[in-house]
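To: structure desk
From: M.T.
Subject: fold request, one chain
Message: Could you run this one when you get a chance? Sequence is below, nothing fancy, just the single chain.
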Amino acid sequence: MDEQDESKELRRVVEKRHGVLETLAKRPQTKPEIVENISPSRPTINRAIRNLIDLDCIERPDNEYELTSVGMIALREYQKYHETIEKVNRSSDILLELPKGSITSRFLRGSQVDHTNPSAPEASLETSISYIKNSSELSTFVTVIKPFYLDGIVELTRDEGLNTEIIMEENTLEAFQEFFPARFDQIVATEDISMYVLDANLPFGLWFVNGDIGDVAGIAVHTSGGLKGVLINDSDVAVTWAHDTYSEYRERADPITQG
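Reply: Done. Structure tokens follow.
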């Protein structure tokens, strides 16, 4: 069997025998224990054990079977793959509204998916706002002017010491200045709020925060019909991706000053 065929066989066996890997990930077990935990069919377990031993996924140093390093990694990648597919399925209507290639599985895996309820369209932002309220620093893309959201940022910055950076597209900035001139003047004049304008399109509404609650990031997706939904993730990988994405656009943005 060549290397390509071996890889295919490993994928096939892990997909079919993942139950054995998952039960052995908890602790080493004897064959009767595996049978009890997985399947009443001993011949099925015998075949599964042979398959996994042949592929170096499990071993039996004494009387108990246990995962090898190969088995641990194979199981972890199998679980990550299935978790990602589940998140893609749950958030597909949100993802379809994003520019192609603008988000990766690094952010999607492990995320909380909040779909918008048409009867209460802003309710899906409540979790995002609660994280911001308990943070000391906020960096955000603002793609749609929502007065209650911006008013809340001003209040938290003024009263709670929140340090904020905001990036807007030129079109969003122009709409802000035209329709909410007093709010624009207030937010630009607020100490500890830095605003930037970008001569390009922002792919989505992005925010990430840090504070006593730790680091958390979120993506808000808007369409012409309003807010479609929100993805929130507090994993290190997701927050790093959000930070890198924000920094990429921040480097190209110009500061907004009162004027």
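Reply (cont.): The mean pLDDT is 93. Let me know if you need anything else for the meeting.
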